[in-house]
Amino acid sequence: MKTRTYDNGFRVVHEKSFHGSQIASIQVICDVGSIHEPADSRGAAHFIEHMCFKGTPTHPSSYEISSLIDKTGSYINAFTDRRYTKYYIDTTTEHVPKYIHLLSDMLLNSVFDKGEYAKERNVVKEEMIQDADDAEETVLKNADAVIFAGSPYEYPVDELKYHSGKHALQYDKLVEMYRTFYIPSRMILSICSANSFDAICEATQKSSFIKTIHRGCLQPPFILSLKPQQETVYKIAKMPINPTHICVGFRTCSIYDADRYSLKMLKKILSGSMSSRLFMILREDNGLTYSSYTESEHYENAGNFVFYAECDSAKVFVNTVASNGGARSNCEVASNGGARSNGGARSNGGARSNGGARSNGGAHSNGVYPLIMKLIHDLVKDGITKEELDIAKSSYRGTMAVSKESAESIASYNAKNTLYQRSDAPSFENRYKTYVDSMTVVDINACIKKYFRRENMVVSVVGRAPPSQKMLEKYV
Questions:
Q1: Cα torsion for 421, 426, 431, 435, to the nearest 10°?
Q2: How far apart are CA 170 and CA 217, in angstroms?
Q3: Are the C-beta atoms of residues 357 and 290 closer than 8 Å to each other?
Q4: Which of 155, 310, 383, 391 has CB atoms 3.0–4.6 Å from 445's, for a disulfide?
Q5: Would 2-211 and 233-335+343-475 be classified into the same CATH topology?
Q6: What's the mean per-residue pLDDT of the chain?
Q7: Average pLDDT, stretch 299-309?
C-alpha cells in the first residue's frame, strides 16, 4: 500500500490488486456524516450525497454522469453513514484515470441547481417513507439511540421527520454545509487496481481534488461524550405489522480498542454461519425464526453489539410448535454486511440467517426472547467453547483468503483506516495473522463479561402488539 498527502490536505491511498486483476475499485470517503449536522439540519449529509449526482458545469446533468459510467459497463453509487459519506465506482483498470476526474468534479463542483434540489427533496422523502415502514430498521435505530445516547451517533442518518415542515432541509443551509465539509482536506481517495501508484498520482494531480486549493467555513466541533447508563433500558414501539422484531443490545468499545477484534470473532461464533450458536438455537433446534443475526459497529467514542431476531408475534415468549423433525427447506445464509447503497441510512454488519426452519421444539417451550436472554446468560456464565472458536477462526481465515481478490474490500479497508488515522493497522492481507491467529477463548470470554451486563443493556421491540416492559423485564 502506498499513500500521498498533497499540500491542500487531500490524501491518496493505493494498493495493487491481487494477482494483477483488471477489476478496479475507486472510492472517495468524505469526512462528513450525520454526526456533523447542526440540530436544525438533520438529514443534510444524506441529501448532499444525492445532490452530488445532479450535475456540474462540466457534466451538467445526472444523465451526463450516468451515461459516462454506463458506456463502460461500470457501476457508480454512494451511501451516507453516521461517520462519513462514501462515493465509489467499480470498473476496470483502463478507466481509472477518467473516473478519478469524474468523481473529483462531482464532489467538488456540484452546482446545486435549485430545480434539481426541489425534485430531489421529493425523491429523498420517498426513500424515507419506505424506511419508516421498515420494522427492522426501526428496532435497531431505537436501540442505538440508547447505546450512543449523549453523542451525535444517537441520531439516525436520515428519517421521515427530518423532511417535515417548511423549514426542513433549507437550500441555503445545505449549500453552506456542502461548502464547509466538501473540501479536499476532508477527502480520501482509496483505490485498489493494477494501475501503478505513479499513474494514480498523475491522474489525481490533474483533477479537481488538487486544483481546488481551499474553500469552506469554520467547521464546528462535534461532541463525543456519552450519557452514563445505570440500568437496562426498554424501547417499545408499535407498528402495523404481524412479525415482532426484537433487538437486545449492549454498549461496547471504540474503534481504537483491541476488544473489538474479540467482539468481531464472537459475532462470527454466534451468527456467522448455519452452524453458529444463535442460528442453531432459534431455528434448527426450535424452528422459531426466519431471520436472526448479531452485529457490531465501532466509532471513536463507543461501539455496540446487538442480537436481532424477527418472529411471529405469538412466539415472542412461547414456542407453540408441536411437530418434530420437519424437513429443512433450502437454507441459506445471506451476509447483510454493506451499507445501503445510494444514501443508505444504516451500515449493517453480521450475517443474517435466512432459510427454512426445522420444527424441533416441544409444545409450549420457550419463545424467541427467553431463548436470546438465556443465550446471553449462558455466554456470561460459561463463555464460548474452544471448538466454537476454532470453527470461527477457520471460517474467518477462509473468508479472508477469498476477500483478497475483492478490490472493493481492499479499497474500503484502506480508506477507513486512513479516515480513523489507524497508522498501526496491518495490511488487508495480514489481518488474520495480526488480529485473530493468537486469539484465545479467555480473550473472548473476558469481553463477554465486560460488556454483557444488565446496566449496559437495551431491549428494543417493535410489533403490532408488542409485549409490555413488565413482561420483558421478567426474563432479564
A1: -80
A2: 18
A3: yes
A4: 383
A5: yes
A6: 89
A7: 96
- Check if the beta carbon of residue 227 is closer than 8 Å to that of residue 120: no
pTM greater than the 0.85 cutoff: yes
3-state secondary structure the chain: CEEEECCCCCEEEEEECHHHCCEEEEEEEECCCHHHCCHHHCCHHHHHHHHCCCCCCCCCCHHHHHHHHHCCCCEEEEEECCCCEEEEEEEEHHHHHHHHHHHHHHHHCCCCCHHHHHHHHHHHHHHHHHHHCCHHHHHHHHHHHHHCCCCHHHCCCCCHHHHCCCCCCCHHHHHHHHHHHCCHHHEEEEEEECCCHHHHHHHHHCCHHHHCCCCCCCCCCCCCCCCCCCCCEEEEEECCCCEEEEEEEEEECCCCCCHHHHHHHHHHHHHCCCCCHHHHHHHHCCCCCCEEEEEEEECCCCEEEEEEEEEEHHHCCEECCCCCCCCCCCCEEEECCCECCCCCCCECCCEEEECCCCCCCCCCEECHHHHHHHHHHHHHHHCCCHHHHHHHHHHHHHHHHHHCCCHHHHHHHHHHHHHCCCCCCCCHHHHHHHHHCCCCHHHHHHHHHHHCCHHHEEEEEEECCCCCHHHHHHHC
Q: Provide mean pLDDT across the span 55-73.
A: 96
Residues 6+ apart with CB under 8 A from 67: none
Q: Where are the domains of the chain?
A: 2-211, 233-335+343-475
Instruction: List the CATH code of the domain at 233-335+343-475.
Output: 3.30.830.10
The cell for 396 is: 474467518
Q: What is the pLDDT of residues 320-355, one digit of tens each?
A: 764 444 433 344 443 343 333 333 444 443 433 443
Task: Output the pLDDT for position 145.
Answer: 97
User: What is the biggest distance separating any 2 CA atoms in the chain, rounded to whole angstroms?
Assistant: 70
Find the mean pLDDT for residues 218-222.
Answer: 66
Specify the fold of 2-211.
Answer: Cytochrome Bc1 Complex; Chain A, domain 1 (3.30.830)
pLDDT tens digits for range 270-292: 998 888 999 999 999 999 999 99
Which residue from 334, 333, 329 is spatially nearest to 356, judged by alpha carbons?
A: 329
What residue type is assigned to position 304 of the chain?
N
**Whether the predicted pLDDT of 440 surpasses 70:** yes
**Contact of 166 with 275, CB cutoff 8 Å:** no
